Amino acid sequence: QLQLVESGGGLVQPGGSLRLSCAASGSPLRNYAIGWIRQAPGKEREGVSCISSSGSSTNYADSVKGRFTISRDNAKNTVYLQMNSLKPEDAAVYYCAARRIPRPCTTLIFDYWGQGTQVTVSS
Q: Sorting pLDDT into bands at 50, 70 and 90, what band is 70?
C-alpha cells in the first residue's frame, strides 16, 4: 500500500516561489507515475503537472507552463513541484497522486492520493 505525504505549502506573496514535496512510503515510488493536482474553493480539481515513473516524460497545464517544474528522485522516494512566479490564482490545496497505469496527464484517475498541502498566494 503506497502512502503519500505532501509538504512545502504555505503563504507566499505574488511573484514568490515554493517547492512542494511528495514523500512516498510503503512501496517503491519508481513503480508509479505521479501527478500534482490542485483544487481551489468552489472550483473543480485541476491537473497541474505529471511525471512518468522514470521521470523521462513530464507534462504541464497551460496555466503553469514555464513557471512550475516537476521532478522526482526515486532513490529518495520523493517527487517535487517547484513553483515560481506564483499568482493569486495558483492558490489552492495541492495534492500529489500516484498510478501504476500510465494515462494522459489530464486524466485525474489515480490509485493513491495524499492528504494535500495548502498554498496561499497573497500580499
A: very high
